[in-house]
Amino acid sequence: MNFEEKVKNVQHIFEGHVINLDMETVELPDGRQAQREIVRHHGAVGVVAVTAADKMVFIRQWRAPLGKETLEIPAGKIEPDEQKSPLETAKREMNEETSYQAQDYELLSTFYSSPGFSDELMYLYHATNLTPVETKLPQDADEFLKIEELSSSEVKQAIEKGEICDAKTIMAVLYWNLMEQ
User: Fold this and answer.
1) Which tens digits make up the pLDDT trace of 18-33?
2) Which of 34, 48, 81, 111 has the most CB atoms within 10 Å of its CB?
3) pTM for the whole thing?
């Protein structure tokens, strides 16, 4: 069976700083029509940053959609001028959010964060040989962040307490655990 849906109409609902929202009318494989609400996103990066002391670097911040603080890996959206080099985004986010630079970066994976409603593609990098940045880039004006470096056992406790609760960070922790074996 062919599962492809044919797009019949696209209505642009919202254009924002982080996302755009489209309403698509599609023809289903059986000929019926349906509506698809699709979040459009430039893409993002996440970084599994590991210190010389074998601790993973996290960012504590407030997340309005959840109404609570979370611990997340350094991450951020790919700016339009960075589309051809997500690695540059990873380096920028490491500088802005952690004040670290890494000598070595390795692309671990790319994945869609939630393909049921969004086209956001994430790039997950592993960063090692961390040193303090020479020239600190400013954080986004609306960001209030705290850097935390956690051991493997501390990460497990943070997951159990619900502080680490987003998919990209849990995926990063799983990669880190696999690399440790």
Assistant:
1) 999 999 999 999 999 9
2) 48
3) 0.93
User: What ranges make up the beta strands (E) of the chain?
Assistant: 6-15, 19-27, 33-41, 44-49, 56-63, 68-72, 75-77, 100-112, 121-132, 146-150
Q: Is the pLDDT of residue 100 over 80?
A: yes
Give the SS3 label for residue 50.
strand
CA nearest 145: which of 70, 65, 46, 67? Answer: 70
Alpha-carbon span 4 to 114, nearest angstrom? 18
Identity of the amino acid at 39: V
* Residue 140, Cβ density class (10 Å: 0-12 exposed, 13-18 middle, ≥19 buried): exposed
Tokens 């960063």: give the residue: 127
| 39 CA to centre of own chain | 15
Please give the structure tokens belonging to residue 2.
Answer: 């062919």
